[in-house]
Amino acid sequence: MTRTPPTTVTPVRLWRWRRNPLKRHSDVVEAWIVLAGWLLALLAGVFAGVLAAGTSQSAFTARLSQVHPVAAVLTDGAARTPAAGSGYDDGRVWAAVRWTDADGSVHTDRAKVVPGAPAGTRITVWTNRSDRVVPAPVTGAAADLQSALTGALVAPAAGALVWGAGWLVRSRLIRRRMAEWDEEWKQIGPRWGNLSGGRG
Questions:
Q1: How many degrees, rounded to 5, is the angle at CA 128 between CA 122 and CA 134?
Q2: I want to staple 95 with a disulfide (CB 3.0 to 4.6 A). Which of 4, 24, 52, 78 is the partner?
Q3: Does residue 61 carry a pLDDT above 70?
Q4: HEC readout, 61-116
């Protein structure tokens, strides 16, 4: 007894774009939705990424315009180790500083400095319009890098959101097509069975 070799099914690529007597209007619509979904996802990702990077860069520029550096001195020696439970440890410690504005007014505040720095050490601190010490702004290459990273993170998220919307539309089309096939089979199925019985 000879054994029949298994049949290999070769998938037909891009069948929705080829001439096919079995192809339905919904298949063509689905093909266009898939194409449009990928194109819109790509465009949305690029647009959102560029917009996010630009917004981030604008935020850095706006903050830089609201603060300015001043030369200050430590009024007391800095501790040699950070205080326990002081939160994020960047290797520096808090110390009292003093600086004088251009109009001669004297200000004091606390700033992070190198551990163990003696009193009288000169440092540069950033202050806001209320003459309070604030963290140094992100500038230069660091600002450019953070803006680029922001855009790189936002771009795929926006693209995935658009692609997901297209996938939902496509899923509804698939369910509709399956329902159409089911209705047609209910009509053709009984006749197909009668034809098979007649041949037997």
A1: 60
A2: 78
A3: yes
A4: HHHHHHCEEEEEEECCCCCCCCCCCCCCCCCCEEEEEEEECCCCCEEEEEEEECCC
190, pLDDT greater than 80: no
* Residue in the block written with tokens 């990273």: 149
Spatial distance between the Cα atoms of 200 and 197, rounded to a whole number of angstroms: 5
The stretch 63-67 carries a mean pLDDT of 93
Distance CA 5, CA 72 (A): 87
Instruction: Work out the burial of residue 192: count CB atoms within 10 Å of its CB; fewer than 13 is exposed, 13-18 middle, 19 or more buried.
Output: exposed
- pLDDT for 10 equals 56
Query: Distance between CA atoms of 84 and 94, rounded to whole angstroms?
Result: 12
Residues 103-149 pLDDT 10s: 889 999 999 999 999 999 999 999 999 999 999 999 899 999 999 99
Tell me the two tokens of residue 144: 């450019």
The first and second tokens of residue 10, run together, are 């070769």
The single-letter code of the amino acid at 127 is: T
Enumerate residues 6+ apart whose C-beta is below 8 A from 148: 53
